[in-house]
Structure formats: C-alpha cells, structure tokens
Amino acid sequence: MHKERIRLARLLDKVMPAEAAAELIRDGMTVGMSGFTRAGDCKAVPEALARRAAKEPLRITLMTGASLGNDTDKILAEANVLARRLPFQVDATLRRKINAGEVMFIDQHLSETVEQLRGQQIAPVDVAVVEAVAITETGGIVPTTSVGNSASFAMLAKQVIVEINLNMPAGLEGLHDIYLPTPRPYRQPIPLIAAEQRIGLPYIPLDPAKIAAIVITQKDDSPSNALPPDQETRQIAGHLNDFLLHEVRAGRLAPSLQPLQAGIGTIANAVLHGLVDSPFRDLKMYSEVLQDSTIELLDAGRLSFASASSVTLTSAVYARFLADLERYKSRVILRPQEISNHPEILRRLGLITINTALECDIYGNVNSTHVGGTHMMNGIGGSGDFARNAHISVFVTKSVAKAGAISSIVPMVSHVDHTEHDVDVIVTEHGLADLRGLAPRERAQQIIANCADPLYRDLLGDYVTRATRRGGHTPHLIEEALAWHARFREEGTMGGTGPILAAA
Fold first, then answer.
1. What whole-number distance in Å separates Cα of residue 404 and Cα of residue 424?
2. CA nearest neighbour of 381 among 420, 353, 406
3. CA proximity to 443, closest of 468, 478, 480
4. How many CB atoms lie within 10 A of CB 244?
5. d(C-alpha 234, C-alpha 225), whole Å
6. Active site includes 288?
7. Rounded CA separation 59/76 (Å)
8. Which one is catalytic: 288, 338, 420, 429?
9. For residues 379 and 417, is the Cβ–Cβ distance under 8 A?
10. Distances from the Cα of 197 to the Cαs of 12, 176, 203, in angstroms?
11. Residue 96 in 3-state DSSP?
C-alpha cells in the first residue's frame, strides 16, 4: 500500500525501518521534527532514538512547530535524549526536567524559530523528520494534519527523513497551502489579503535527493484533551459575546466581525464554542490551531472558512472530521506557522484574538507561561504573535484557581509575557474589562471591578489605594507587589492574615 503513497518510484529504495533511519541522527545534532499541538507529529523515529539512547550516548537539540503527541516528549525526556528543546512543549515529564535545569528550553514566539534559522542565529538543522500523507511525483512532501515548521525544516536541513503514515487518509492531500517568505534583503510582501485565499502549493517542494530515508507508520495523532465548556467558561463566552455585539452596534465591527484567532486549550476553545449561540454569521478564522469549537462553528453555519497551521481535535470530533473530509476541505486550509502567525498578515487582516492567561495584573500585564514567576508551564506559543498585532487583543482566564487559593488577578504578574501595551480586553467569569483608551490608574479600576473574584476584590482595591498615595503613573508598592505569590509559596494560599492583609 505504501507504494501508492510514494509516487516518485526511485525513492522506493529509501524505505527502511525506523531504527535504520534514526541512525542518521547522531549525538550533538540539531533535529527538526514535524508536529504542532499533537497533530502531524513524527511517531516512529523518536521512539527509535529513545531505544538507541539506552545503549549509547545520544543528546540532541530538538526543534518542532509546537507540542508533540503520542508521549514523544516524555519518551525522549525519560531517555535523556533532549539536551535542548524549542520552541514549545506541554509534557509534564519534560516540564520537570526543564524546571530542574536538565533540559535547556528556549521559549519562542512561534513565528520566529525559522526566521532565526534562516538568519543563522541558531544552530542549523542537521536532519528533518516530517510526517507525510504522500510523496509526489517530483519529490514534494504532502503533510498530514499540521504544517507547523515542517516546510522550513525540510528545506533547510541537510537530510530529510519522511514518515509516511498510512493511518492518515490520502484525502488530506489538497488541504495545505505551502508558502514561505522570499529571502531578504529584497523580501516581497506576502500576497495574502483574505483568510480563504490560497497563495502556495499543496505540498512542500523539495529536492528528492535530500530524502535520505522513508519510514512507514500506522499510528493516529493523539487526541486533544480540551475539556467541554463549563459554567464559568460559558459565562466568559457570554461576556465576550456581549462585548462584540456592542462593538457591532457601535459601528466598529461588521456583523461578521473580523477574522478570529483562538489559542490552544480548554478555556479558549470553550469561549470560541460560545459563538455557536451568538447572533454573528459568516465568521472567518485565521488562527494557528483548529480545535473542536472550529468544527462546531462550521457545522452550525456560523463559520464560513478557517485557516490555521494544524487541526487538533478530541477523538469523536477527529473521527467526524476525517469521515467528512471532502466537505471540510472546501472550508479549511493549513499553512506553515510562520504564515499563520506572521505579523504582516495579522495586522493586515485585523484579527480579534482570544488567548489564555495564567494571571493578569491590575494594569493589564499578562503572564501566560510561568507559575510563580519561575517554573515554566508550556511556553508562550503564538499568543505574542497574535496579541501584539491584533485589531482587538483579548485575554481570558478564570478569576481563581485551586478552589480560590490563587487569584488570577494580582497586583503585579510574576512574569510578563504580554505587556499592557498589547492587551485590549480581559475577561473572567465575573465580567469584562475594556482597557482601550485607558491610563494605568483607570485600567486598575476596570480590572478590579469587572474581573477580580469577590474573595480578592477588596484586597486589590486596598492595594491600589495605598499605592496611589505614593504617586506614579503606574502606582505600585514595590515591597508588596509580589507578596501574594510569596504567600502562596509559603502558605498555599494568596489569602490569609499576614502583612498584606494587616495593612488593609
């Protein structure tokens, strides 16, 4: 069956077991692997590398599009294969090794990795490993359920290993639009002016001489673990829908809004799902990941087209998508992540972006990566690409975590990923703060009144009152600004009766 997928006959003699292909990867190399939020990831070669590492020294720098599925990061971390990892991950085992300093993790904006590769600012890719549906008659690689950085890795690498996944339907061919920016210094504008527009090829163009090995696999993507909407995420969605409707009535948005982007994960997916019951029609998406909510919006007739870099779905929705692939292909497109996340295009299209915060402070700064300011969670992903260049930049979060022991609205975030300059709207289950056109002192009042949980609202108000007495454009009590985080570290709660409350 694999002979039908390898349409350039002279490449058939490159088919080999994963162990033999993995021998191309040697200790100290930089490897670029396909995979973006569990979708389209390599499945056989990484496991072969882990088995080999049990017998000989093998440490690599691993680049991907985003996170990998099938426990690949866990398997490689446990086998001590990973010396350096970028630009994103979500695995608990790898996270522990990162926070222990055993794996050097480079947290990057997802649009930037291949730009740094092209500019020779980071180590070049020695070997690329790319999952594919097929290889074309000219040696082009047809990706599976993600594009991510695969196209650039394949073009820039010295050698390429292709994993042909027979579990992926051949009908995925035609879903992709592969376009990469032209070289500097005379780079041309990217000719994309609408989410539904095609500007590239349906495969990754490649000199077939670079394909050093082909591995045949039969393994599905890992399903998304995003949870369905709950009461609080429905409330967040309701507040956002009301805000967008107000923008339409004020004449600032059309009834079809602007193209939408939503970050990965349970909260952003659930909030986007809330648009199913909204009055908006003919919506379009220009995002990096299509989740269950995208399919629901397409099926409900609310969404007319969706562009992204990967499709990451729960098991049931994944089966539905593949079973009706031809219908969805007319309304879905997958692009390289440097196009899906490119600042030029995002600013041109005027996106409404919806991303998730770990915590926000009273002036609108957002932490989306570090727990307690020190421990990496997953990474910034594409949220910075989108927030900085959005028409309206929205961040969503539940107001508290760990049964109220943690407030997601704090005096000062413990780590800044998105400054207040890139945050227009903050939404929790309690309400929405529209920060546009407000000075810092005005922002604080809006965020506390509308977004903070009642458990912490008075404490935040007291902090602002006392800080304001000391003056400043952005008033802070430096000696107390991170006291809530310190209290949680020592006592397991941001509440209590210590100095920060005694002063109230």
1. 26
2. 353
3. 468
4. 24
5. 18
6. yes
7. 10
8. 288
9. no
10. 35, 12, 16
11. helix
Q: What is the DSSP letter of 71?
A: T
| pLDDT digits 0-9 by tens, 110-166 | 999 999 999 999 999 999 999 999 999 999 999 999 999 999 999 999 999 999 999
DSSP 133-176: EEE-TTS-EEE-SB-BTHHHHHHHSSEEEEEEETTS-GGGTTSB
130: helix, strand or coil: strand
- The Cα 309–Cα 432 span in angstroms is 29
Output the six-digit token pair for 287: 């995002």
Q: Per-residue b/e over 117-151, b at no fewer than 16 CB within 10 Å?
A: bbeeebeebbbbbbbbbbbbeebbbbbbbbbbbbb
- Please give the Cα distance from 69 to 151 (Å, whole number): 19
Amino acid code (one letter) for 286: Y
**pTM for this prediction:** 0.96
- Residue 22 is encoded by which pair of tokens? 């993995």
- E strands, 387-462, are 392-396, 400-401, 406-407, 409-410, 425-428, 431-434
Q: Going along 233-372, which residue ranges are E strands?
A: 260-262, 283-286, 289-290, 303-308, 310-311, 332-334, 352-356, 359-361, 366-367, 370-371
The answer to whether 69 and 40 have CB atoms below 8 angstroms apart is no
pLDDT digits (tens, 9 = 90+) for 69-103: 999 999 999 999 999 999 999 999 999 999 999 99
